Amino acid sequence: MQDLSSPNVTPVGGEDPRLKSAKTITTVIYALQAASFFVGITGLVAIIINYVKLSDVQGTWLASHFRWQIRTFWFGLLWGIIGAFTIFLLVGYLILLANAVWIIYRIVRGWLNLADNKPMYI
Fold first, then answer.
1. Which residue from 21, 26, 35, 118 could staple onto 42, CB 3.0 to 4.6 Å apart?
2. Tens digit of each residue's pLDDT (9 = 90 or more) over 40-84
3. Dist CA 5 CA 96 (whole Å)
4. HSE-up (13 A, CA, CB side) for residue 12
5. How many Cβ atoms from other residues are within 10 Å of residue 3's Cβ?
């Protein structure tokens, strides 16, 4: 796989079409993660796309967004499960609320950085 961040692959007068396509996919993944609050299955679709397309973004600034999205999914799922299992103790409601706020923050922060063509810190 060729490094998409290399100046040698960027056509004169524009952005590399493969990098533009990868950015579009990254945007779609953020949208799917956001939609998962209403239609839960879209979160699963998003993580599958993340793993399928991960090799396409290796070596680019978009790889940091993929790591950010993957970590958001897995840690969100972990805390969601912990919250669900502790809901009878009433602390579960707080865990679930904090988890939802954290996931929303991660989606918004990532999407804003993506719109500004900035990588995510990890």
1. 35
2. 899 999 999 999 999 999 999 999 999 999 999 999 999 999 999
3. 38
4. 0
5. 11
